[in-house]
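Explain the record.
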Amino acid sequence: MQPRSPSRSAAPRVEELIARRELSAVFQPIIDFENGAILGYEGLIRGPAGTPLEAPFALFAQALAEGCTIELERAAARTCIEAFARLDFDGKLFLNFSAGAMRQLAEARDDTLALLRHRGVDPQRIVVELTEQSTILDVSSFLPVITTLRTTGAQFALDDYGTANASMSLWVRLQPDVVKIDRFFIHDIACDPLKFEAVRAMQHFASASGARLVAEGIENEADLIVVRDMGIGCGQGFFFGRPHAQPARQVTDDARDALRAGHIAVFPETTRTVSSASPSGGMASEKMLVHAPALPRQATNNDVLELFNRLPDLHAVAVVEHDEPVALINRRSFMDRYALPYHRELFGKRPCLLFANASPVVIEKSMTVEQMAKLLASDDQRYLADGFVITDNGKYVGLGTGEKLVRAVTEVRIEAARYANPLTFLPGNIPISSHIARLLGNDAGFYACYVDLNHFKPFNDQYGYWQGDEVLKFAAVVLADVCDPTRDFLGHVGGDDFLILFQSDDWRERVLRAIHVFNEGAQRFYAPADRLAGGIHGEDRRGNPTFFGFVTMAIGCVRVEPADGPSLYSSEEIASVAALAKRRAKHETSGFVLIDADESVALLRGQAEATHVSLE
C-alpha cells in the first residue's frame, strides 16, 4: 500500500516542524538604486509545501497558539542563515525578529556569534529587523539589546515603518541603521499625493538621523521612478523579484533599464486638486486673527467702557462663559448708546449682555477658505459692522473684522492660484517652474510645449465667462488625456495658456492629437447658427468689426536636449522661449511649431543685451 501524501487539511504542530527541520527559506533581493546592484536579501521562512502552514502568516499564527513564537523565530533565522551560506551569495542578509527574540539573541550573544561563524556568514553582513508586531513597553531597557547586537557587528533595522508599532518615537529612541518604509506608502505613490508627502517626511527625518531608507513594496516602474527621484537609495518588491529559494544574483534587465531611465518622475504633489493644494483655512484665519481680551458673562457695562477706553483700537469685545463665546459687543454701537444722557448712570452697573449681540458670527479657526468665501457671499452681513468671533474647537481665541476677512480670503486665493489653477485644478506657475528646474537639474531631455487658444477672447466676450470657462475646462481635459501622467507634466499658466513638459518619446503624436481633438470638440460650444456660419462676428482689439473663426488650439514646442553638465538655461528662459514658439504657432495653419532651445535662447539673450546697452 502506497503512503498517502500529506493532506492540506492536516496541520502539523510547529514544534514538530522545528524538530524535524522541515522549515525552508526563500529570499527577496534588496536593490541599491545608485549602482543597480543587489545590496542584499531579506530571508523569509516557509512551512512545508502543500500544507496549511506553508504560508508564513499561518505558520506564525499556529506558533502563537502553541506558545512557541520565539522558538519559531530562532529556527527561522537558523534556516535562513544556513540556506544563505549554501547559496554563497554576496551582500547582506536581513532577518526578522520580534523584540522578545532580539532580547534572547542579545542574552545569548556568544551562541549567536557561534551560529553565524559556524555557518560561514560574517556577522557584519547581518541586518536584524525589528518587526512591526513588536510592542516595546520599556524602550529604555531595550536600548542595551540594540547595543549588544551592534557589538557583534550586525546592523539594526526598523521594519514596516509607518504602521502598527513602528512609530517615529521608536525611530528617535532606537536610532536604527536602516528604516524600511512599509509597502502601504510605496504602492501607488506615483499617483497619491498624501503617500508622497508622508514618504518625503520620512526622507527628511532619515537624512537628519543618518538612517538608510529601503522602500518596500515596489511593484511597477512608475512607483520606482518616483522613489528613485525622491532620493531614496534602496528598495525591494515584486518589480525586482519575488521571494524564491534560488533568487537571482543580478538585477533583471527590466529593473536595470528602469533604474537607468533618462526621464524623471512627475511628482504627484504637482497634480493635487485645488482643495488639497490650496493653503488651509488655518492660514487664512491666522491672517485675520486679532488677539483681544474677552469679558466674562457677569461683567458690567462699566467694565466694557473701561476696556474700550484702555484699548482705543479694539473694535469689539467678546463675552465668554467657560471660554466659549456667548455674545459680542461692538465698540461703535456701544459707545454711541453710552454717550446718550444718563445712560452711564442708568446702565453702568447693569450686565454687559444688555447691549450685546447674543448671536454673533462665529468662525472656527479650521474653517476652509471656501467656507469663508461663502460667508462673504451670504445674506448675513452682520460681520461687516460687528466683526466676528474666532474659535478653536469652540473655545475663544480672538476677533476678526469684515475687512480682514475679505483681505485674508483674497490673499490666500491669490497664493493658492500660484500653486494650482482654481478652474482646472492643474498646477500653477510655481510648480511649473519647479518641474522645469528639476528637468534641467537632472540633465533630462524634454519638450516644453506652450498651449494657447486662438479666438478665445471674442468667444468669451460674446458667450460670457461661464461658457468660456467650459471651453478652458475642455482644453484641460483634452491636454490631460494626451499626457502620460508618469512622464509628462501639464500645468495651467493662466487664462487660456497651458504648458506641457513632455518626456514621452511620442510627444509629437500627442501634441497633434490634442490639437485635432480640441478643434473638433470646441465647435459644440457654439450656437447652431454660429456653427453653420463658421464663427462669430465681433470686434478686434481696436474696435473694428471682425469675423472670428472657431476657437482652435495652437501649440509651440521647444526642444531641450539633455546636458552633459550643468544646464545652460534657466527655468525662466525655457518658459520665455516656449512662449515665443507659441506666438509663432498661432500663425501656422496646423497650429504647431517646433523650435530649438539653443538658437532661441541665444536670440532672447541677444535681444536682452541689446536692450541693456540702449538703456545705458
The radius of gyration is 34 Å. Residues 281-414 form a domain with the CBS-domain fold (CATH 3.10.580.10). Confidence is low (pLDDT under 50) at residues 1-9, 270-281, 608-616. The chain has three domains: 14-259, 281-414, 424-615.
